[in-house]
Amino acid sequence: MDTATLLTDMLTAATSAAKGHATDLKNFIEARARLIAEGVTAIAADLLSGAITADDARFAFSEIREAEKTAILAVEATGQAAAQDAINAALAVASAAVNKAVGLAIL
Amino acid sequence: MNLPNPRWLRGLAILLLSLSLAGCAATFIAAYDEATDRLLTELTQRTETAVAKADSGQLPEAEREKFYAEAEGTVKTMEMRAGLYAKNEKEIAALAELGQRYRALRDRHAAPRTSLTTGLRATLLDLHQIEVAKKRSTAFSSGLKKSTTQ
After folding, report:
1. Nearest by CB: B126 against A17, A71, A83
2. DSSP A103
């Protein structure tokens, strides 16, 4: 068994497994920024038109700040999922290499 | 001194490696739950409908209160389901926050206008991202299992 080749294959598999999550995360961050921008624009418009009060606007901003807690949770959960997939992809490559080396599907 | 046969040692090494690799698939996050994802999508749809109605002044008070009560009921249902899975702490914490966002609006007797619901809608989006990550990961894991059993 060639350790250097095995390591390269494991790293390639791990990187490839995490790539999909990275793309999802980028899309999520963009969508979230758009949502907040639209919300802040709506706050300004509603304040100007008198649809909401200054106290309502303070409440709305406070709720946006509170929502940052769940943004962090979403990013952390995505990180956990990406790490899980990367590690399992690398382990699958290692198992296949062992099976091939011994000539038996033992893993 | 009688040294062990090298072939016997090689066999033992393979056995130990087999045991360690076979038993150590990493699990950092709970499996994807389709029912939770469906409930979240329906809740988001109902919320967006209520927001559109409130923005156009077409959400009467009674309908608004019914919306908040039903939304909180849905969040409770999702919390119950989420609690059945191990390694689901992030989702459970996010659902608790989502319930808090609905309660804050209800307690204020606020119409769910776009301007007042940005925090709520952002939290819904955060939960959708958690579901997306879990769905991708669960699909990836089953793909790995299939490829290793073929």
Report:
1. A71
2. T
| Partners of residue B129 in chain A, C-beta under 8 Å | 24-25, 28, 74, 77-78
Instruction: State the DSSP code for B29.
Output: S
pLDDT in tens, B47-92: 999 999 999 999 999 999 999 999 999 999 999 999 999 999 999 9
**Number of folded domains that form chain A:** 1
Measuring CA to CA, which residue among B136, B15, B3 is closest to residue A16? B136
* Inter-chain residue contact A64 with B137, CB threshold 8 Å: no
Distance, first Cα to last Cα, chain B: 45
**Residue A57 resides in a domain:** yes
Whole-Å CA distances, A94 to A5, A7, A28, B9, B69: 11, 9, 32, 20, 52
Chain mean pLDDT for chain A: 95
| A·B CB contacts under 8 A | 177
CA distance A17 to A14: 5
Does residue A107 lie within any of the structural domains? Answer: no
Q: Which domain holds residue A13?
A: 3-102
- Mark yes or no for CB contact B122/A73 under 8 Å: no
Query: Is the CA virtual torsion A7, A8, A13, A17 positive or negative?
Result: positive
Rounded percentage of chain A residues whose pLDDT exceeds 90: 86
Question: For the residues A25-48, what does the mean pLDDT come to?
Answer: 98
CB count in 10 Å sphere of residue A83: 18
The reported pLDDT for the residue numbered A8 is 95
Q: What is the pLDDT of residue B143?
A: 85
Q: Does the structure show a pLDDT above 80 at B14? A: no
Domain annotation covers residue A19: yes
Global pTM value: 0.89
